[in-house]
Fold these 2 entries.
Entry 1:
Amino acid sequence: MNRATLYSRNERFILGAGMVLAILVVWQGLAMGWWADLLSPIVGAGAEKLRVRPIFISSPVAVATKAWQMYLVTGEIWKHIGLSALEILVGLGCAIVTGIPLGLWAGRSRYGSYALEPFMAALNATPQVAFLPLIVLWVGAGFGCRVVVIYLLTVIPILINAHAAVRTIDPRLEKVAKSFSASEWRFFTSIVLPASTPFLLAGLRLAIGRAMIGVVVGELYGASTGVGIMINKAGSLFQTDVVFVGVFTIVFAGLLLTELLRRLERRVEIWRPGSHEQAS
């Protein structure tokens, strides 16, 4: 295998890894003052602006060392991850259980669409974080508050995508189903659900990103454990390495869940009407 073939097969990984490595080198250089020392003979005292104090930016090496300590030495981060994961599981799970059926029903029913569209439009245009003070008053500042915040942030993209999925189904498929006297349930399971799957998974990918936001925002109110409150407390104490560990934990969790959904979407792509003809 020559180098050109090897590169073409791994181009995505090579370019992505190269960009990440370049950013890490620049970041480490800012924390260690490499760029200030390198440019000081050229630009003089102006290069000192590139010498950033570690308390403000930390460094990749310091963050990696702190992550090793928090994950494998003391294990202190696992209690935060456990509670945040439970909050996401409950909040996102409730959003899936309610958002998908309601969205599909609104897409199939004219009356359901008329009833839900104003609420979907209003909630989508409103930052759900604005409801935080009311949520705290209604359910308190405990676990339930964070679950409600995550639910409100995640149910909207799921609901909108489920509604749009049904609306974009080819009307000719429904005519064919009716011509064969297919029941509504048969039409739903054989046409609506397979055709809606890509939209539903796209909504879930958006919901995952919002769930991560909900964890951080929701835990600012009265939480004593969780990745969000860990980041907040570390920031107030200028522990930037801990802040980056918490941020990267959320980033990696989001990337992992998104990649799992992408793999699932590729697996269920064959369910879509017409996929067999396209493949052939």
Entry 2:
Amino acid sequence: MTIRNQQRTVSCGMLAAFLIAMPLVALEAHAETPAVEKDAATLEFERFRAEMEDFGPSGLWEDKGEQLWKTPRGPKNASLEKCDLGLGPGVVKGAYVQMPRYFADVDKVMDAERRIVWCMVNFQGFKEEDLAKQPFAKEGQETPEQTSLVTYVAAQSRDMKIAVPQKHPKEIAAYKIGKEISLYRAGPYDFSCAVCHGADGKRIRMQALPNIATPEGALNTFQGWPGYRMTGGVMLTQQWRMNDCFRQERFPHPKYLSDTITALLTYLTANANGQVYKGPGIKR
């Protein structure tokens, strides 16, 4: 990376830290702000992101995930090449943009990370409780294997249209439950997902808040995950993003790989159906 790009990485990291420092209690004051033209800081960050997407660090985790996928490991000394992500055993290409989806072998809807962990447990012999001890990357710690695997799988759907199925009754039910969860207000600040992401034109200072009820807003929220988080220098998945939203709402954290998160991801991703997924990216 050139010195110029290194400098821009630092400056954008500082900007990101500034953006997330604002207390969420201030949201209500900004909730009805009308849509405005993008300011200079937003345009600069978008230019930076566009440049970084072309040679961003997510490729490191893609490569690691591919190695983990194909290498026999675990108590059963097996690879994940028999794992069915919805398109048949071992089929990875295009699978990420078609999840969450119903899986008959477990009689439930699963998102990508949940399904991959299920395969790690059932094909390789890992224990889910062990994988849940450190489900997400933290600064200064090794990235969890499931994060690298999700990144690899997601990369195999790059430049494909999102096509989350809504045919099976349980897929339809998951969507409806996810919508209800997004609208549910509770906690000490009476927050919900929709307080931030339920209407057009909302923002926190310089950061726009996509409306996940619309195709464009849902895509903007879905796009770039799994993502390299500049503020922590770690790779993170959508499971982490949803979990952290609960923290910001001052709700108890959901259990890792819970039905709640799968339902929310079903609602979010299905709303983006027909939009093109660009693959793993970077986040502020």
